[in-house]
Design goal:
Blueprint lengths: L7 E4 L3 H12 L2 E6 L15 E7 L5 E6 L15 E5 L2 H12 L3 E8 L5 E6 L5 E6 L3
Parallel strand pairs: 1-4, 5-8
Antiparallel strand pairs: 2-3, 3-4, 6-7, 7-8
Length: 137
Amino acid sequence: MATKLNPYISFRDNAKEAAEFYHSVFGGELEINTFGDTPGMADTSEAELVMHASIVTPGGLTLFLADTPEHVEQSPGGGNIQISLSGDDEAELRGYFDGLSAGGTPGVPLEKVPWGDTFGMFTDKFGIAWMVNILGS
């Protein structure tokens, strides 16, 4: 198996909601395991939080998500990272842009840019920054 780079997004207590939202946009297979699914992993107040969720699409996209337990420091969105989607399938990438940006904060509109591609940026409703680049469209 080739090495893959998979974004892993941490949330405080809404990873399940985020996973279901991202799954509605990307499709594919969604798996969610809670802390309560693994004995000894969480106290009762955190049993329903997501220990690990994964979305794997037929096209090869993989996204991991988890809730951060209260006793662990967490910085939503990180402030220094963005997730980038790029390729030449304009319909697919426009669909991701529209779906992921719904309810979020607009950034750069998805339009033709000087380097010849179509590019846009936004922050989704969970505070995660995204970039979409459609090659040479």
